Amino acid sequence: MTVETLVQQQQASSASSPKPWLRSYPEGVPAEVDYKVYGSLVELLEEAFRKYAKRDAAACMDRRMNFGEVDELSQALGAWLQGKGLQRGARVAIMMPNVLQYMVAIAAILRAGFTVVNVNPLYTPRELEHQLKDSGAEAIIVLENFAATLEEVIGQTAVRHVVLASLGDMLGFWRGGLVNFVVRHVKKLVREFRLPTDGGRTVTRFNKVIEEGSRMSLRRAELGPDDVAFLQYTGGTTGVSKGATLLHRNVVANILQSEAWFQPMLKKLGGDKQLTTVCALPLYHIFALTACYMLGARLGMMNLLIPNPRDIPGFIATLQNYKINLFPAVNTLFNALANDPAFARLDFSELVISNGGGMAVQQATAEKWLKITGCPVVEGYGLSETAPVATINRLDLKTFNGTIGLPVPGTEIAIRDDNGNDVPMGERGEICIRGPQVMAGYWNKPEETANVMYPDGYFKSGDIGVMDEQGFTRIVDRKKDMILVSGFNVYPTEIEQVVNLHPGVMECAAIGIPDARSGETVKLYVVKSDPALAEEDLAAYCQAQLTAYKRPKYIEFRDELPKSNVGKILRRELRG
After folding, report:
1. Are 338 and 361 in contact (CB under 8 A)?
2. Which has the closest alpha carbon to 255: 300, 224, 221?
3. 495: domain CATH number?
4. What is the pTM of this model?
5. Which residues pair with 432 in a beta bridge?
6. Is residue 561 domain-shared with residue 473, that is, in the same domain?
7. What is the three-state SS of 201-213?
8. pLDDT value of position 188
9. Do residues 458 and 434 lie in contact, with contact meaning Cβ atoms separated by under 8 Å?
10. Same domain, 167 and 302
11. Among 78-92, 134-148, 237-251, 514-528, which stretch is predicted with the lowest mean pLDDT?
């Protein structure tokens, strides 16, 4: 199945099957949205730059940056990238936490006619190498704190140009000298590195890039709705990391779908008041990318960027300085904040939307959050492959209902059996999604794409759910063995492949077990080949090879693992 075929299927008219969810839609939410009003994300962003030039687009570490500044800086960065000879559609990676440069980088790459490859800055060298090689990224914008990781693998990739950012870059770039104390503190956190410049590779500081690019002219890229905007890496429904190919129209559609759902509630704030949304979720994750960055541009919102949301006291101290209107988060973050007494002392008088996604929201967390803030957590559901929002609950619900809500405008949900047949209402089946936000396929992986797409354009989510007569869907199980840790997909196969390379390991199996903090965590069962192998040795090995959320929290040694009659390790028996 080709990407072109999928595009035609996704653009085709919806089937004439009933849509019970439409009867449950809130007043003022349309059944469809016209996502063709923008030819590309660049049109949407440049409209925001013109319309909201004087409004703050983001705030980070007490530094604010308005839409006009994002406009000017992104033109300079985009022109500089074009000046390096990158061709239309070239992949440019971003490897940073939530800092102001991220706001500039996304706009610059898209405006220059390139494709954004979002990279988790906490990746190990092995993980980073795979993503850079698979995407074919030719340039990367990286915070210097993570340059040492890049140094280890850059020679094995196609990356020719490195833009090296520092946390101090933007603190005084436009409004007076650098904040020396912050810069000195940050320098202490940067591992020593020396990025190679052999063979024509360039390494240029972010501020130098802006200086050089400001003397250049950004050539307007002729982009259309079917050009690739993002390669959003995910395991999908299998353990092989692959890039979900998100076209400009996929993301535009999801922005407008989300806006249509939110608008009736946002109108309660009245007038043309600028809204503030908390962006504590990482911008390299599809949830924040769409719900914070892109929706923020569409609505002229200010994103309150939180580089390190794990620092709960620091996070709460930052929130004290702002009136928050929207708060997207995952269950673990809602829970951590709600359990800190200082959080309850904040002013929530203007908080109207708390939207949860990335992982299941727990009832106890939702009830605690509502009691403290007076704003219910509204759970939604989506995947990288759906850009991401597929369903969301009504915003006027006052009690936790345990469902993932209703399909957003223009989206259809089908519950199907293993043969692809729709199951009767109320019965279990795989949640399948069709809509303009569904990806064009997996990057350079036609077989993987065909495995997750039905001929009629429905995407197989890998989750098992039940839909009720009102159109609300409840997730009841997962089709695959994927583990969900704090909203991030963890695949047992990847962990097992890494651990099995340890010389002291004969065989192993990874499973997910419940965890009060992260929803699930990884437990590893190991059969030793070296009797001297200790838990501490294996834990240290995993720390070097795996990102933190993928590392096993528990390791148990066994004499043997349960297997089928053909020798396949039975994870289900380990789960009990």
Report:
1. no
2. 300
3. 3.30.300.30
4. 0.87
5. 414, 460
6. no
7. CEEEEHHHHHHHH
8. 58
9. yes
10. no
11. 237-251
